[in-house]
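The records we work with from here on pair a chain with its fold. These numbers are not coordinates but entries in a learned vocabulary of local backbone shapes. To see the layout at work, look at the sequence and tokens printed below.

. . .
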Amino acid sequence: MAHYRPSDTKREQFRRYLEKAGVVDSLTSVLVALYEQPERPNNALEFVKQHLGAAGQISADTEALQQEVIDLRQRCARLAEENKDLKTRLQRHEPVSEDGSTAE
């Protein structure tokens, strides 16, 4: 029967914390990317720093882009509604014939 030391319990708790926070997955992904490099970079630590930093930036960039898409969709909807309104108002003053040309 194995006896657990208090430090073993703390290590296990810390390991679960890192897994839950996504740290283990992020580190694994970066290490796999480093492993798959056709040529090993001269500075492996710099490679890891850049790829870990890039993961955080992608998240922030993605969030900003998602908000921009929402804003642009709302603007597009407003402009489409305005366009529809202007066409309706124009039709009252210049009726359009069936072939799409305006009657003069």
The mean pLDDT is 85.
